[in-house]
Amino acid sequence: MAEKKVENAELETKQYIVVSIGNEQYGIDIGYVDNIVRMQKITRVPKAQPYFKGIINLRGEIVPVMSIRRKMGLEDDVITNASRIIILKIEEKGSLGIIVDEVKEVVTLATDEIDKSATSSKNVKDNFINGIGKTGDSLVSLFEISAIVDEKENA
What we know:
This protein is mainly beta. Helices cover about 5% and strands about 45% of the residues. It has helices spanning about 70, 145-150; strands at about 15-20, 25-30, 35-40, 50-60, 60-65, 85-90, 95-100, 100-110, 115, 130-135, 140-145. The strands form two sheets. A six-stranded mixed β-sheet has the order 8-1-2-11-10-9. Strands 3-6-7-5-4 form a five-stranded mixed β-sheet.
């Protein structure tokens, strides 16, 4: 009698910070996240792209801040007490802040809990998503960080 092979013995897992933007939940790979800070004064920069909100001074480091809502073609940000700026560390580009409505939780997803096939759409918003994570009974759209920080205007 042949032994059954255990397929799921070594499933790769990744941690994501779950944030809300509008009514939807999105996951950001925790490997990119350097810091999460409260909303603060953002200094405007003239002639910047519409989704680029400006810059902040984070402990002496100047960090550009973008509106992920504007980048995805959604309505403008509504700043509340729950709003946060997530500071991403991108190797070749340095730090970048993105404004989110709220930081919810950290989830760990195994590779079999991520559906990559749901993202082959021509919708601009979907270009920023590289998979859908299933956590409990809710779904989390997982951000493709490289597409978000890319400077090309996705029109």
